[in-house]
Amino acid sequence: MGYEAAASSSDVYVHGLARFDPAANCGSFGPSVGMDQMTRWDEILTLPVQNPPSSEFSAADISWSMVEGWKDSMDRLALIPYSRVNDFVRGESNNKDCPTRFHVEARRRRPPTMNCKPKVDGILEYILYWCSFGPDDYRKGGNVRPSRPISEKRKTPAGRPNTKRGCVCHFIVKRLIVEPSVALVIYNHNKHVDKKGMPCHGSMDKMAVGTKAMFAPYISDELRLQVMSLLYVGIPVETIMQRHTEMVEKQGGPSNRDDLLTHRYVRRLERKIRRSVYELDDDDAISIDLWVENNQDYVFFYEDFSDTDTFVLGIQTDWQLQQMIQFGSHSLMASDSKFGTNKLKYPVHSILVFDQHKNAIPVAWIITPNFTHGEIYKWIGALYDRAHTKDPTWQLGGFIIDDPLADVRTIREVFHCPVLISLWRIRHAWHKNLVNKCSDIEKRSAMAKRLGDAISSICRGNGDVELFEGFLQDFVDCAGFLDYFEARWLPRLGAWITVLKATSLATAQVASAVESYHHLLKLRLLNEADKSVYWRADWLVHKLGSKVHSYYWLDEFSGKNSFSRYWRSEWSSGPNPWCQGMQIPDSDVVIEGNYASVVSQKNKEKSHVVLNPGSEFALCDCSWSRKGNICKHVVKSAKVCRDRGLALPSLAMFHYYQALANLARCPPSDTLISDHAMAVAVSVKTQLDAVLCAVNGSSSISPAFQDPQSTSKPRESETEEANSENGVCASQSQPGAGDDEDQDIPTGKKRKSGNASGDNDDVSIYQDSLARKKHKSGEASGDNEEASTEEDSRARESRKTGEISANDEEVSIGQDSRDREKRKSGEPSGNEGTSATQATQPSETETSQATNGLPVSSEA
C-alpha cells in the first residue's frame, strides 16, 4: 500500500471530518462537529486513561476500544497520559517478533497565537508514527511515493533505502485541547505487513532471514548511551569496537541489532562529541535558553530570570528517572544542596538515591542562584510528577535534607513521607578545619569529642547553644579554629539546634554515601584547566548532562571492568567507606581507652589509630579521614565499641527507638480511633498467640520496645515484680515527662465501686509482658493460678457484691474496647492479662538497614 492510499483512511482525515486546517478550524478537523461526531467524542472522552506501571509498555499492555469512525469504519483507540507517549513508542518498537523503530512521519501543532473558541475535537498536536521499514517499499516491484524519488545509487549511500520494505504499521497520537494531559492513540494498522498482507521484516519474513531486516533498523538507546558514555570519559573508538567484537564472538554471533554495531557509527558519535560546544552564544543567558530548547528531554523544570522570579533549571535524563523510580520507591532520597557555592556561578543542588551497594546516584540536578536555594517549592512538585507519571505506584519512603533552612513542610506535602536530616555537612566542615587549623593532636581530639558530645546532647534533647559557648571558652588557646567557628558557624547554630531537636537523624551510612558522592562530583566537574569557565552556566549544564552524567552511568555499568586500563581518579570502583568498614574483621580492632587501633586491610603490618572511637566526631590518621571524611576505620571502631557496650547507641538509633516508643506509648486522642486500635491490637495478638501455640507450644512474645534512654534499676525491677505478683501494672508516664518515660507515677486515689478511671487506661507494654510471663510460670498471685472458668465465676461474684480491689486501679494497655466499656459501667474486666501486640527491639545492624530503607520519623 502506498503512502497516499494508507494515509487516506486515518492519518490525513480524522474519521468523518475534513482535512486538517488549523487556521480555519482552530485546531480541529473539519468545519463543524455534527451530532454523530458529538456522540463519538462523548464516547472517546469517557474512556479510562490507561497508565501501565512498567517503564515501557506496548499495545499488548493496553485495553483497546472500538469506536465508530470514518465511513462507518471502526477505530481501535485508547487514552494514555501524554507524558508517556515516548514510553509507548519505545515499548512498541521492542516487538520480539518484529523489532523495529517508529519514526515521526508527520507532525502538526496548533499555532499558539490562535484566539478562537476551541472545539470538542480540537487538537494541540497531531503526530503520525510509522514503522521505519515503511511506508515506501524499495524492494523489487515495490511502491515508492512520487514526492520522494530515489536518487542515483552511490557507492557509499548516505541514507538507508534498503530498510524500506513497505511496512504499513503506523499509529496516530493526538493531544486534545479539552484534555491536554491525555493523548488519544488511534492504532488501526498494528500488523507489520506490506500492502499484500505479507510479513515484510522480522522473523516472520522468510526473505529477511540472514539480512539486517531480521533486526531493528537502528541500535537501541541503551547501547547508544553506553557508547556515548565511554567516548565522553576518553575510551578510544578502537577499544570500544574491540570489546564489542569480543563480546559478540563469545556469545556465538549476532542475535540482535545491537550486535551489528559498526566502526563507522561509533566514529560518527565520536566526531559529534568532539565538535560539540557549550558556548552557544556569547551571552550566557541566551546560551542557556538555546541549550534548554535543544535538550527538552533533559529538562523537567525551567524558569528564567524575570521581575518576580529567579533562574531555576532542573536537569534529569531518562536514565536518571529510571534510577529514581527503581531505587527511590519505598526507600530513601537525599539532598546535597550546596555544591560549588564558592567556585561556580550557580551552585548545584543534587537529588540522590542509593543503589543496591548503598552508593549515592544523582537522579536530578537543580541549578539556581545561591540566595534562592531554599525555594524548592518551585521545582520539587515537577520532580515528583515526573516520577509519579512514569509509575503511578511510586512512593518515597523518606527524604533526607542537609540544610536546616530547607522547606520541610513542602517536602512532606509533595512526597508524603517523613523528613530526616543528615549531619554530614557540619561534621565534614568541622573535622576538616580541625585538622587544618589545630596541629596539636591531643587538643584536636579533645575539641572533636567536645563538639560531638554537644551535638549528641542536643539531638537527645538535653542541650542548647550554651554548650558551644562553653566550648569556645574552654579552648581559647586554639585561635585558628575558634575564629573560623565563630565567623562561619556560630550565627547558624540556632537554626541547626532547632531542626536537630525536631527532626529525626539519618544514619552515618547515609552520611558516608553522600560524602563520597560530593567528593566524586568535585573530581568529575571541577577539573578544568581554565577556571574562568566556572562562571558560565552554559558550561555547567553542558558538562553535567554529558561527561559527568557518563561517569555516573558507568558506575552502574556491569562491564566497566573491561576498560580498567583507562581508569582515572574520576572513576569510581568498589564499595563506599561504610561498606568497606563492615568488611573489616572484629579481630583487627583493638580498643584501648580513648583510642582504637585498626589493622590496615592492604598492609597487615600497619595499623591506623582512631581517636574518640564510638563518638560522632571520631578522628583517624588515614588520608581519607584527614580530608574530613568518614573513613572505614572510624566506621568499624564505632561498631565494635557499641557492640561491646563501650559507647552509647548512635543518634540515629536513639531517634529510631524514640519514635517506636512514642508510637507505642501515645494512643490516638480520638476515643473511637483508640478503641478501634485496641480491638485490632487484641485481635492480632490473639492470632499470633494461636500461631505460636501451634508451632512452639507456647504463647510467649518477645519484649516490647523500651525508651532508648531508660536504664533498668534494681528498685524499679523489684517494684515491677511486686506489682506483677499482685496483678497490678504500673502506669505509663504522662505527656511532658521528658526522657523518663518509664518512671512509675504513683496513684493516690482508689477506684470507687462501679467507676473506672479513664486517665489510667494505658500502661507499659514491657511491664505487662513481665506480668503475663509470671502468670504463665506460676509466680503470680493465687487468683491467677485458677483456671479461666474459676476466674469468670469469681469475677461474676465480684460484680454482684460490688467489691473491687484497689489493685485493679491500673489496667493493661492491651485490654480491648469491650473491657473499657465494662470498666466505665462499673464492671471490671476478667481478662487482665491481655496485652497489645508487641514487637522485638531491633539490633544496631538491623536498625541501620531499617533507617536506610523505611525510616520511622519521630514526628509520627
From TrEMBL:
Domain SWIM-type, chain residue ranges per copy: 605-642
PROSITE patterns for the chain: ZF_SWIM (PS50966)
InterPro entries: Znf_SWIM
Segments of skewed composition (Polar residues): 703-712, 724-735, 831-860
Chain residue ranges for the region called Disordered: 142-161, 703-860
Domain of life: Eukaryota
Gene Ontology MF terms in the entry: zinc ion binding
Keyword terms of this UniProt record: Metal-binding, Zinc, Zinc-finger
Biased composition (Basic and acidic residues): 791-802, 816-826
The name this protein goes by in its record: SWIM-type domain-containing protein
